[in-house]
Amino acid sequence: MSLPAVNPTKTEAWKALENHFQNIKEHQMQQVFSEDSKRANRFKIEWQDFYFDFSKNRITDETISLLLKLAEEVKLKEAIDLQFSGAKINKTEDRAVLHTALRNFDSLKPEVKDTLQKMQYFSEKIIGGAHKGFSGKSITDVVNVGIGGSHLGPEMVTEALKCYKNHLNVHFIANIDGDEVAEKLNRLNPETTLFIIVSKSFTTQETLVNASVIRNWFLENTSKDDIQKHFVAVSANVDKAMDFGISADNVFPMPDWVGGRFSLWSAVGLSISCVVGFKNFEAMLFGAFEADKHFKSQPFKKNIPVIMALLSVWYNNFFGAESEAVVPYSHYLHKLVPYLQQAVMESNGKSVDRNGESVNYQTGTIVWGSVGTNAQHAFFQLLHQGTKLIPTDFIGFSEPLHGNLENNNILMANLFAQTEALWEGTQLKTVESTFKHFEGNKPSNTILIKKLTPKNFGSLIALYEHKLFVQGIIWNIFSYDQWGVELGKTVAKTTLKAIENQQLSLLENASTKNLVSKIVEK
Ligand code: F6P
């Protein structure tokens, strides 16, 4: 069965939202809290360890009910059920979208169970030191070699859960930049290093070239037989991994129905399982599973990812906001934004709808941001006094992990204060000069989570996954392919040929020709 394909702009709700927007767009909404003592309690959702406050948004009850109507008219419920059923909703690649099956503890597929067991067994041997390298020493360093979805998730999680980390050092080699590879290899000892080559396709240029460079470096002091003790692979393409020289036992399979940018829950999370332990990895899957149940079962008005998505559509398609910022107030989450950039922008950066027609409305938002309070001293000036409307997600944790309450109180005070200052501005206060005037009326969501545990972190990521799915459904696009990354790869092949063969005639574009000539004429 296919996803419903409704042009959102043709729905009644969309037209009503357009009218409603005309009424609301100029409203300075600072007074809403004093006019409506129940607003803060009405526009919030409490769920498990999460408190989601969306009351500081440019919305009224009517906005929410129209947005909910839009969700109904585009048949969101049907789409959610289809996704979880395993239907091939990734139509342009003829695949199901089932990353949720990797954490469906109500009924784990046998292949998922097998892989989890294999991951547990392997990571415990690495952590416990039973797995020996070629010279008989235990492993001290784990290197994840992969790019995009085969890198960003594991890196984000190992950083986010650093507090739960064991003695193993973890490194990431993603970029084809040879300087970076050399720099990292210089600091590693082949005797005690495990390389996990992660590539769903096992055809990605960066990963394959880097893996070969690493293998050659490794073989400088060892023999081919030693490879099996130091190289494992994670891939849906087991044969290709074996062609590279990794034995079948050392390949951790990943199913075809898991998209790269949603794959951290699969064997792609092997580095996570090694450095924070399998139990913590499993707890993270469990947190995601809880979020899946919330998403599937809660009525839309009490459904965190649905409300997040609807608000985002409201700003993107009616206010014309082009971007949204994400600001986690936890240094542990400093890799969240790059992760979300791939998840959101690779998924929803599309301009053809599910009927194959060009869209005449905006789709995928630009996601950016960084951690607070650092961000306050970097780009917050623009959020407060710039000309652009940038809805912002603030993420914070009530309890610090290391017991430093004094710092945490200051950190949280800053988070809450920023959302208030953005919203209130100085409208109601007297300011000495126009330069010190803050317009306010700047929207934000606050996601306040009790504590940064593996379970809660898993839930957080799954909520964002579901948010982007809902947006894709509303925009009537296919969120799970990524054809837009292909053209550049093809052009790069010809460009590389021109560079390697010093053959400028292969190139057609005059600008590219000039640029290439600067390299080949050295
Ligand atoms: O950037 C394109 C992409 O295909 C991503 O979707 C994917 O996560 C990444 O490349 C890496 O792909 P692979 O895991 O197959 O090496």
What does this structure look like?
With 522 residues, the chain is an alpha/beta fold. The chain is built from 20 helices and eleven strands. The chain has helices at 12-24, 32-35, 39-42, 61-73, 76-85, 110-128, 152-160, 178-186, 205-219, 227-230, 238-244, 270-276, 278-297, 304-319, 336-348, 380-385, 405-424, 454-475, 486-500, 510-520, and strands at 44-47, 50-53, 141-145, 169-173, 193-198, 231-235, 251-253, 323-328, 366-368, 392-399, 444-451. The strands form two sheets. A six-stranded mixed beta sheet has the order 1-2-11-10-8-9, sandwiched between helices. A five-stranded parallel beta sheet has the order 4-3-5-6-7, sandwiched between helices. Strand 6, helix 11 (238-244) and strand 7 form a beta-alpha-beta unit. The termini are far apart. The mean pLDDT is 96. The site of 6-O-phosphono-beta-D-fructofuranose (F6P) has 15 residues, from loops.
* Silhouette: globular
The tally of strands reads: 11
Q: What is the count of DSSP helices, taking H or I runs of 4+ residues?
A: 20
Structural class: alpha/beta
Small-molecule components bound: 6-O-phosphono-beta-D-fructofuranose
Subcellular location: Cytoplasm
Enzyme class: isomerase
Catalytic activity: alpha-D-glucose 6-phosphate = beta-D-fructose 6-phosphate
GO cellular component, one term: cytosol
